Amino acid sequence: MQEHHLVIPKTARYFSSGELNSHTKEIWVICHGYAQLANFFLRKFDLLNAPHRYLVAPEGLHRFYQEGSAGRVVASWMTKEDRLNDIQDYVNFLDLLSESLLQQAPDAKIYVFGFSQGCATVSRWISLGKTRCEALILYAGVFPPDMNFDVSKEALSNTKVILANGDEDEFLSEKDWKLQSEELNNKGIRHELVRFNGKHAIYPEALNKILKAVF
Prior knowledge:
Elements (H helix, E strand, L loop, with lengths): L13 E4 L8 E6 L6 H5 L10 E6 L3 E6 L2 E7 L6 H22 L4 E7 L1 H12 L6 E5 L9 H8 L3 E7 L7 H13 L4 E6 L7 H11 L1
Parallel strand pairs: 2-3, 2-6, 6-7, 7-8, 8-9
Antiparallel strand pairs: 1-3, 4-5
Helix pairs in contact: 2-3
């Protein structure tokens, strides 16, 4: 048996909040976690809405039923199966999305936010893709274990890296969070830690802390 691959056109979905035009100063690309949908996820970021800011939530290219063969549909960015092609697909998607948005708002700056599984997604995208951002925010997650910091260091050199985590996060312990910070220090990657009260979820108070850290 031989394995083959075929590159095909595919329609990707994203949701937005705000008005995109020549006066837009900030474009926030917000990537959801595992088993979420972008439209529901984006609603958690209403606090970020501002006249100069455009929020966009791309959706993972893999949709599935959360429970068996019926019910709620959710999305994922990738699985362990054929992972390298899945990674390249979402890197291409996010690059194309950002490029199309910047054509409509050429003076805008890109800010990137990843939640949970979305942290690995945005980390790989900024490392492997063409897009450069003002800030890379990893919320309730860290860089993926296969991250090549020797390659990504240049892409991150002019980017404000922020690691945000709740003190009751069920999936990311404070120990692992701080180990990630130590690794970044060892690699010479400047970053800031944002700690908030809460679990593995989006909180308005945490978003306010992140805004202060970014600006």
